[in-house]
Structures are given as structure tokens and as C-alpha cells.
Amino acid sequence: MDSTELRIAAIVPCHNEEAAVAKVVTDLQAAVPGIVVYVYDNLSTDATAEKARAAGAIVRTENRKGKGNVVRRAFADIEADVYLMVDGDDTYDASAAPEMIRTLVEGPYDHVLGVRREVEAGSAYRAGHETGNRVLNSVVGKVFGENVEDMLSGYRVFSRRFVKSFPAVSREFEIETELTVHSQHLRVPQTAVPVGFRDRPAGSESKLRTYHDGFKILRLIIGLARHERPVAFYGLFGTLAWILSVILITPIVIEFYQIHQVPRFPTLFLGFTLLLLGSLAWTAGLILDGIRRSRHEAARLMYLRYSAVGETESGGAPGGSPR
Q1: What are phi and psi of 111, to 5 degrees?
Q2: CATH 3.90.550.10 corresponds to the domain 3-228
Q3: CA angle at residue 204 from 131 to 34, to 5 degrees?
Q4: Strands 36-41, 82-85: pairing kind
Q5: DSSP secondary structure code for residue 57 in this structure
Q6: Which of 101, 215, 306, 319 has the highest local Cβ count within 10 Å?
Q7: Quick one: pLDDT band at residue 46, thresholds 50, 70, 90?
Q8: Is the Cβ–Cβ distance between 218 and 136 less than 8 Å?
Q9: What percent of the chain lies above the pLDDT cut of 90?
Q10: In which family does this protein belong, per the annotation (predicted)?
């Protein structure tokens, strides 16, 4: 199906982006004819909303602070066939949008990730951001078993069935991590497209805090690993507890056979306690794994309620426009 027949909505989260938001809106409109651009003003104290509205965007307000809150609200509010999400700071190349949308439709895919490629080497990434991104990509790849090229990219295209099956719970910049993990555990068809990435325009200031946000994302990854890989997560602690238990108990057992006495009752008690805790950890992991499978089955059934991009339930083209 021709992408011009689809309802395409752009979601642009913004907090104090008056210096860049108008250009983001007009560039998207020029790159993708017919696109409906929604700018979500997230507690801005400048003229972000006015600039966006003057550029032709539909402006909505989200009063809960954080990009995750904006995305959750937008995914619930907007009805479309294709959703494009991009930051409002004009660091991403809007001219890549048609290729990303075409890739999604022709796949058909449910998630197309814009992998950042700097327009000018060494200019766009702040110190520590590129290294941190690589580390987090590696951690997520190892935990969830699938390589990630640019987990923290804010430039993505989604199908309707991805958006409507996504249970967004993150509040801030962890939302990109949650989107990535959702696409992996649901095993949706997805791919990546290189996109240009540049410095913010003059007068625009980054809201990212390298270490604060990095640790918050890492904490989210640990939490997601606990929920999505419970056997491995709890099994690791259970196995460590068993090993320590064996180390503590073995000398006492040997000593008992030699002198027929147990001179170190506290150590023996600690060893058996660790043995019990290890068993409980493994039991918890196995029970939670059963719950995880049920959650995934429910999420998959919700996902399958919607047709692939460009198709209606009867196989025809979707009509109407986003509301």
C-alpha cells in the first residue's frame, strides 16, 4: 500500500524547545505530505506551544513531567496507522522520515529504529553519552538475547498494533529502553535505518543528565531483567547462596565425621539458612517465569487484535484521519 493512503501521526515531546520546535514541525510536514504533527508540551516555561501551533502542529499539554508520561498519553490519545516519534530539539534529520515509513510499510514491520549517524563527527554527542549508549546497548543485548544498535534513539516509527499493545510505565527518558525491550520480548518484526544526527540549534539546551539518567536507565534494565528473565535473575542469587552454603557447611560435616561434634553451630545455621534462601530464590524464579509466560501470551493476543500496517481486518485500506 502507498504510504500516502495511510494515517500518519508524528509525536513530538517537548520541554522548553522554543528555539527548535517550529523547524521540527515544518521539516516533518515538508518531508511527509499529509502527516499530522502532534506537539506535546511538557511543562514548558517558554513559548514552545505558541511556536509549535504557529508552525501548524496540533498542540497538547501533558502536566506530568517526563518523556515517558508524554509517550504514554500520546499513544493512548492518537489514532493512526503509522506513528512517528521524534524529539523536538531538531537534532534528528527529518528527511529520513519517508524512508523509515516506507520501510515500515513495505516490511511490513512494527518498529523501525532510527540509528543515529553524526552529520559532523564529534559534534552531536556530549561527552560520555556515546560510551554510555554503547554500554547500555551491550547490557540489554546480553540480558534479552538480541543485539541493539541504538537503544536510546528518540527517532522511531511504529505500527498501530505496536503502539496499542505497548503498556508504557516509564515516566522519563527510560521510555526508549522500555520500547526496545517491549519489541524484543514480543518478538515483533523490526529493523533499523541510519538517520542523521546533529547538534542542537543555538539557544536550545539539552535536558539529559548523563550520570543521573544513565543510572536511572540501568536501574530500569535491572528491573526489566527481573521481570523478563526471572529464572536467570533469581537463579543467579539462588546459585550463589547454594555455593556459599556448601562452602560453609562442608568443613563442618567433615569435622563432625572426625570428632563426632559440631563445634560451630552459628556457621552451620548460616549455611542451612543460605541453602533455604537459595531454594526459595529458585522457586520464586520458576513461579515468576510462569507468570511471565502468561503476561507475554496476553500481550501477544492484544497485539494480534490489530492488523498489520496498511491492512484493515477485512484486508482493505484504512480510512479516516487521526483524531
Answers
A1: -150, 120
A2: yes
A3: 95
A4: unpaired
A5: P
A6: 101
A7: very high
A8: yes
A9: 54
A10: Belongs to the glycosyltransferase 2 family.
pLDDT surpasses 80 at 22: yes
* Banded pLDDT at 10 (limits 50, 70, 90): very high
For 117, the grid coordinates are 549517524
Which three-class secondary structure state does DSSP give residue 65?
coil
What's the rounded Cα separation, in Å, for the pair 88 and 90?
A: 6
Burial of residue 254, with CB atoms counted within 10 A of its CB: 0-12 exposed, 13-18 middle, 19 or more buried: exposed
Three-state SS at 45: coil
Q: Where are the domains of the chain?
A: 3-228, 230-301
Cell of 63: 502536566
Helices (H) and strands (E) in the chain, counts: 10, 7
pLDDT of residue 323: 44
Question: Grid coordinates standing for 145?
Answer: 538475547
In the numeric block, the cell 522554543 is attached to 18
Q: How far is CA 298 from CA 25, 160, 177, 238, 305, in A?
A: 37, 17, 21, 29, 11
Asked whether residue 40 carries a pLDDT value surpassing 60, the answer given is yes
pLDDT digits (tens, 9 = 90+) for 275-310: 999 999 999 999 999 998 898 888 888 888 988 887
Q: 25 near 39, Cβ under 8 Å?
A: yes
> CA torsion angle for 285, 234, 147, 72 (degrees, to 10)?
70
Q: What is the pLDDT of residues 88-102, one digit of tens each?
A: 999 999 999 999 999
DSSP string, 156-201: EEEEHHHHHT------STTHHHHHHHHHHHTT--EEEEEEEE-PPP
Q: In what order do the strands lie in the sheet with 8-14?
A: 58-61, 36-41, 8-14, 82-85, 156-159, 111-118, 190-197
- Please give the grid coordinates belonging to residue 320: 479516516
What length is written for the chain? 323
Tell me the C-alpha distance between 104 and 96, whole Å.
13
